[in-house]
Write a structure and sequence with these properties.
The complex is a heterodimer of chains A (290) and B (223). Chain A is α/β, with parallel strands linked by helices and 290 residues long. Helices cover 49% and strands 12% of the residues of chain A. In chain A, helix 9 links the parallel strand 5 and strand 6. Chain B is an all-alpha fold and 223 residues long. Chain B folds into 2 domains: 125 residues, no CATH class; 52 residues, no CATH class. Classes of the chains: A alpha/beta (290), B mainly alpha (223).
Chain lengths: 290, 223
């Protein structure tokens, strides 16, 4: 076998090993490659900054632990950003999820399991509420759009929503100003689009997206989706923006991790591009059999 | 055939419910016929209850299948061990989640349940998803070969999108970000919109077939 043929057929285990080598060190010892904030991330941030005073925002954790490595940074930074907006503009935040596996991730985020979370003195039940898991997928979304109390009679702790001050003014989707869905599949934006946006076509929608899901969101931007965070890259960019308002987030576990993820994405992509180039060089230069 | 086994019953129920929900969609909201919206909400709540019930049925079915596999184990085939493990974990997780819940099961505060979620389920689930990175890297190396003009186009577009998506791409040359954005906003969007419109038309056609009783696959059974 000639050198060129060998380059064309490198054993996949070599590639796996090299991927470990380029990813692991930078995850634990980030090299702080520069971050350029993309327009998408900036727009996501600006949309949250522009929420009118007193508006109701739904933060949906439509993901499971599988999506957490990529979306965890987005969840964490979005929640922290919303707490700053509660403090600055008195917005109201309703947290919920249509994925059963997302229910445990909400308290894990604000209880500081993944790093310090500054709740800025926000009061539960008045400024924010966690409704937890709502069953039924798309049907559950439809229910919530028509009758929030009927769709989820109790919050995550079992308190009747009819006794929660914040929920007195959240009766249908018409009372919601913005939906922020951090999601890794179905149900997700497509279902919100059918059940929520069609009932309120002025609803602002922001999405926290997996990198592989981006093609599915792009056709809906900017008319239906105002912006989305693209995967781990979006998370690290957004954390650096939120970190300007809440420096503690950068010093925390999530902030450090975001820098590491940023570096790992760069090194792994470069490795793949190098290997694609090597494969093609081998393909074109190998001797042709007649 | 007994009357309760006949398919006409479910077909008529489907038709009535679907027609009512379509009616509510166009005339219920905006206080035109608010009672229709309330009734529609009730019908949809039934669906949520049925779905919750189905989760229990699904868990029982998984237990049944794996119990049979454990019973029918053959010498030299150790796959029954995996079935045993699933069996044990399902029962353990259900017992922990339902019977040891701190607030009558409404909130999963039980430390052992949370521990299993945080340190077993999260770790395994995250690992399974992350392993994809290795397959994507290996797949890209093998698939991105300029064997034909079309493959060359895919290779160039793929490489440019990778450079645009990698944080370091914009640092090397900001033009990669613009090219990536153009590829996603023009050619990719054209393709995706075509797929979405096609899927939408297909969904409408399927809906009409279900309403008219020509599509019966959702009822289960043989044909």
């Amino acid at each position: 076998m000639s050198l060129w043929e060998k380059l064309e057929a490198i054993d996949r285990r070599v590639l796996y090993a090299l991927l470990w080598i380029v990813v692991l060190p930078v995850l634990y010892y980030p090299i702080n490659l520069p971050t350029i904030i993309s327009d998408l991330t900036r727009e996501y941030y600006n949309q949250i900054e522009a929420i009118p005073s007193g508006s109701v925002v739904v933060l949906a954790y439509d993901l499971g632990p599988a999506g957490w490595p990529e979306l965890g940074g987005q969840c964490y930074a979005t929640m922290q950003h919303l707490f700053t907006m509660i403090n600055e503009k008195g917005i109201k935040v309703v947290m919920l999820c249509y994925w059963a596996t997302g229910a445990a991730l909400i308290p894990n985020t604000f209880e500081g399991v993944y790093g310090p979370m500054d709740q800025m003195g926000a009061e539960y039940g008045v400024d924010w509420v966690n409704l937890g898991y709502i069953a039924g997928g798309e049907v559950g979304m439809s229910n919530f759009a028509m009758d929030t109390w009927g769709a989820k009679p109790t919050d995550y702790e079992g308190t009747l929503v009819s006794t929660i001050p914040l929920m007195q003014n959240v009766r249908t989707i018409q009372d919601v100003y913005m939906l922020i869905s951090i999601e890794s599949g179905t149900p997700g934006f497509e279902e919100y689009n059918r059940q929520w946006w069609t009932r309120k076509n002025t609803l602002k929608i922001l999405i926290g997206a997996l990198g592989v899901s981006i093609p599915g969101y792009e056709p809906f931007r900017p008319q239906r989706i105002q912006s989305y965070l693209p995967g781990g890259k979006g998370a690290s960019e957004y954390i650096s923006l939120v970190g300007k308002k809440v420096p503690a987030i950068l010093a925390g576990q999530m902030g450090k991790k975001a820098v590491g993820v940023n570096d790992a994405l760069s090194t792994s992509h470069i490795l793949v591009i190098i290997f694609v180039a090597i494969g093609n060089i081998g393909y074109f230069l190998r001797p042709r059999r007649k | 055939m007994a009357w309760y086994k006949r398919r006409e019953g479910p077909l008529i129920v489907t038709l009535i419910v679907a027609l009512f929900l379509i009616f509510e969609w166009y005339f219920g909201e905006g206080a035109l016929i608010p009672e229709a919206t309330k009734a529609s909400g009730q019908i949809q709540l039934f669906v949520a209850f049925i779905l919750a019930f189905v989760i229990g049925v699904g868990a029982l079915n998984v237990l049944r299948i794996h119990w049979h596999r454990i019973q029918r184990r053959k010498p030299g085939d150790y796959s029954w061990l995996y079935s045993s493990w699933i069996f044990i974990l399902i029962i353990l997780y259900v017992i922990t989640g339902i019977f040891l819940g701190a607030y009558s099961g409404l909130r999963t505060e039980e430390p052992s349940y949370i521990w299993m979620y945080d340190y077993v389920l999260s770790a395994l689930d995250g690992t399974m998803y992350s392993i994809l990175a290795f397959f994507i890297a290996s797949g890209a190396y093998r698939a991105f070969r300029a064997r034909t003009a079309e493959a060359a186009l895919l290779l160039i577009a793929g490489t440019l999108v990778m450079l645009g998506n990698a944080p370091v791409g914009g640092v090397i040359w900001t033009g990669f970000l613009d090219i990536n954005s153009w590829i996603q906003r023009i050619p990719m969007m054209a393709g995706i919109r075509g797929i979405l419109i096609g899927a939408g038309l297909g969904a409408i056609a399927m809906g009409i077939r279900i309403l008219t009783g020509r599509e019966r696959g959702y009822l289960g059974g043989g044909e």
